[in-house]
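Good morning C.,

I know you're traveling, so I'll keep this short. The sequence:
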Amino acid sequence: MILSIIELFKHLLESPSVTPEDGGIFDFLERYLDGFTFIRIDREGVKNLFAYRRFSEGKHLCFAGHVDVVPAGDGWSSDPFVVSEKGGFIYARGAQDMKSGVAAFVQALKEAESFEGTLSLLLTSDEEGPAKFGTIEVLKYLAKHDLLPDAVVVAEPTCEERFGDAIKVGRRGSINGVIEIIGKQGHAAYPEKAINPVHQIAPLLSTVAGAYLDEGDEYFAPSQIVITDIRAGIETTNVSPGKLKMMFNVRNSTRTDQEKIRAFIDAQLCGIEYTLTLDQSAHPFVTDVSTLIVRTLRESIVDVCGITPKNSTAGGTSDARFVAAYGIDVVEFGVINDTIHAPNERTSIAEVESLYAVFKKLIHNFGTISFSKRS
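The tokens, ready to paste straight into the viewer:
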């Protein structure tokens, strides 16, 4: 059985796979990919699939991603799990994030006739959810069984204005913070008998909100404190609050960590009684642009699209962070990102066909360049 790239794309889109379901896609792929060895690594209701084909001794190139999608939500002009085609675009939940990428690399892998080494794919049904039993569990298994790849391409949507204009060579980390300022509740008519935490933070808020913690570098924008919530009081006008809770997030570069954030907050809130809780949900990473996978992907994009992509680390987190933690060279490339998680999510037929062409060329180019195995 062989489908065209667009037929395959439509089939994936019409397989409903809201986290943590795979919509039957993994069973389909086991029938579709001839010559591959399949390993199912299911954990806590999350479905994961690793498939590989060893052509010869040599390098191991893996394509990774997720088949799960966020719930459709309201505001759609058509059924989000029935493909709608209009004006050269295909509409459905997951069209950009990221069944376009999955279709492109699955088709490229199916059609690969030779490679100097091993080709594989890694897919999970829990990227859009907690991501605790998805890609991270597959990597643990691969490490234990000496199957870790040398390079990974994650096919998340990365392009901005034009297909081929951006690849992600890294991702910012994410640190969540909670500040609780401890005051003394009292009657609003007697402010001198109370300690109002709102009044304490008010003159200092401008020094904390939006503050830059570093200057950024060639890969990362400056790390910035983004206030996400402030609340205090008991929703009455005659009682001053006894406590204030302020929440924030920092998408951090490699130049800022939890210790730096704590030192900054300590300096700004000096003299105020407060507690600070920090939690890092993702660590920043960057892949050297001189590595083989980055150079080869860039060359493949230039060959297919005629433009040179910029190196980006913008946006949220992805499962690439789990790959990078194993010291594996990882890069992300996919279709334009402008409707992900939105009603009427869509991507163009031309983009999907071009992404498939880029991945075919990447496999060819990567498999014909000499390569030293990781020690």
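Safe travels,
E.
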